[in-house]
Amino acid sequence: MMTSTSLVYLIALPLAGSAILLLAGRRSDKWGHLLATALSASSFFVGLYQLSLMVGRTNSDRPVTQKLFEWISVGTFKIDASLMLDQLSICFVLLITGVGTLIHIYSISYMSHDPDRRRFFAFLNLFIAAMLLLVLGDSYLNLYVGWEGVGLASYLLIGFWNQKPAYATASKKAFVMNRIGDMGLSFAIMIAFATMGTVSFSGVKEAAGHTSTAALTGIGIMLLVAATGKSAQFPLQAWLGDAMAGPTPVSALIHAATMVTAGVYLITRSNFIFDAAPTAQLLVVIVGAITLMFGALIGTAKDDIKKALAASTMSQIGYMILGAGLGPVGYAFAIMHLLTHGFFKAGMFLGAGSVMHGMNDEVNMRKYGALRKFMPITFATFGLGYLAILGVPPFAGFYSKDMIIETAFNSGGAKGIILGCVTLLGAGITAFYMTRVMILTFTGKSRWDEEAHPHESPWLMWLPMAILAIGSVTSGYLLSHGDTLVNWLSPLFVNHGERAELLSPVVVSGLALAMVAIGVAIAFVKYSRNEVAAVAPTDVSIFTTIARQDLLQDRFNEAVFMQPGQALTAVLVKTDEAVIDGAVRGVGRIALGSGSALRGIQTGFVRSYAALILIGAVALIAAIWVVTQ
Amino acid sequence: MNAANYLYLSALLFTIGAVGVVVRRNAIVVFMCIELMLNAANLSFVTFSRINGDLNGQVIAFFTMVVAACEVVVGLAIIVTIYRSRRSASIDDASLLKR
């Protein structure tokens, strides 16, 4: 494999930015945001440079590595801190730094009134560096460092406004739920090390051929647990909605475009494990299918624009996970959907931020309405993202989502039919809730609060939105035209034979578009024909109530995990107090009691001590005399 | 002369010394009583040495004298210092550990 010396700059630049901004403190308030943006952009240009080098080489020469330093060296066991850039990593590198830079630019304006803007940019740069380490690590252990790093950055940014207790709680919730996933990843690494003796991607790939299926299934399931935590998949999905407490650029970058897709990266990167462990692969598909429906259903009931988009993110990542679970035919499509989703979802989140910016940070869509006239650019960019997520040709989602639906249908047997129907139904529901968001926000009558004065955002904000909108329009075509992305990624995956064709692409597209049309039509009838209440109606069906409460996921977690956990803690605290503290205090009390009893003979008079010594000596001698007689 | 008589004398001297330590309050007198006990012990050692016909007891008597000399030096210094600071040589007055 070829080596390179410039990979480290990808990570070092944003990391240096983060360090400078945090260490320089208030002194860098004036220029910190500019430095952070410039460093993120330069990291993007390093990525472009690497891409240009990579394109110029033949397929097998494309991956490059760089050894940073020897990390762990114990006997024959050695792990280097090394970076590896291959066809898969470069996609992520460009997505992270590209979208990341756009969001840096957006945040300059969005956060301009915040006194802690510099700290915000320091965390953003930290996130970029950690996420790049995640996708550039050449072993599971290096990936794990980045994995934890993005978790930390996510925690810091969700709780950026931690003066509000609810926001601080949201960041804690995200952190704790992510820990469960992180535990899965560390178990996967441990199993891999115990059974294969190596944790590097290349080593595990080699060893996967002669490792028992049971071990591979174990690793696969643990990797899936990791992916569900980081990517907000069922059953660890509950944190994503609350993560919207963070500033909107954070939601766009971390909780839509990049970090939450780390699970998809992990599964795709570990394709050699999942291909050899069908049970784990089936579980991946099931998790993806459940989550895509779960997220879509939650999305239909949310009035908070960011939470509706978060539910949509969950659902779209469900598509990606499902795609990645379909095996070699699905990996490339999962990545393609990930990239197009990065464009249109980040764009829509930035659009939501722009709307909030003009509406005094109001997030309730029932208090929007008729914003099209006041925010034409936001409307246009959001609308293009909307068409992309719906999958209307020729927008990006049409190519990527239809590919996943088609692959699902063609995966064979009853499984294929079920998955195909779920993905189709998901597409219809997606159309419904996204149309609902569009109608409630941009059309109809205004339902604003009195002090709201909506206005278009400054150019620093709409420019990134416009660029992302261009990506939402073109990326799907560019990536799928002539199977560009599939061919680009193909050296990484096991070659597969011809796909079985249950339904032809045209039929699938027709079905998907029909579902989308139905979804849009229902939304129109429900929200455009009728008046929208400015206050959410309370006399709604039981299903709506449940969907508004995120399908009871929090209640479930509280009843099944939190309350028994708290009961267990209470018991342990009691036990600790009674048994352990009791024993320790008992020893103390015995010493104290015997001490005060014995204190009586300590008179302080030398003569009494002398008398005691004398009595003792006499008694001793008498005893010896008696015994020896 | 019966060697046992020396042992009786030794026991008598030791008892006088022990009673003196317990009963008397004056530190100097207590001190002299301790010396008396040490010398009673010395007498026993020397007597046993004569009875057994070896030198062990005599050697130990010398050790005891050396220790007694050291003890006198340190003990008298302490007594003088206490007397200077407290204007009293009564050992019952020197009971600060209790109070």
Structural features, described:
The complex is a heterodimer of chains A (629) and B (99). Chain A has 24 helices and 3 strands. Chain A has helices spanning 7-24, 32-55, 87-110, 117-136, 140-158, 165-196, 201-207, 213-230, 239-242, 248-257, 262-269, 271-276, 278-301, 305-325, 328-358, 376-390, 396-409, 413-442, 459-480, 484-489, 505-529, 542-548, 553-598, 606-628; strands at residues 2-3, 64-74, 77-85. The longest helix of chain A has 46 residues, at 553-598. Chain A is globular, with a radius of gyration of 30 Å. The N and C termini of chain A lie far apart (94 Å). Chain B has one domain: Orthogonal Bundle (Helix Hairpins). In chain B, helix 1 packs antiparallel against helix 2 (27-52). The interface between A and B is small, with 9 and 14 residues. Chain B: It is a multi-pass membrane protein. Chain B: GO terms for molecular function: oxidoreductase activity, acting on NAD(P)H.
List the helices and strands and how they pair.
The complex is a heterodimer of chains A (629) and B (99).
Chain A: E1 2-3, H1 7-24, H2 32-55, E2 64-74, E3 77-85, H3 87-110, H4 117-136, H5 140-158, H6 165-196, H7 201-207, H8 213-230, H9 239-242, H10 248-257, H11 262-269, H12 271-276, H13 278-301, H14 305-325, H15 328-358, H16 376-390, H17 396-409, H18 413-442, H19 459-480, H20 484-489, H21 505-529, H22 542-548, H23 553-598, H24 606-628
Parallel strand pairs in A: 1-2
Antiparallel strand pairs in A: 2-3
Chain B: H1 4-23, H2 27-52, H3 56-86
Helix pairs in contact in B: 1-2, 2-3
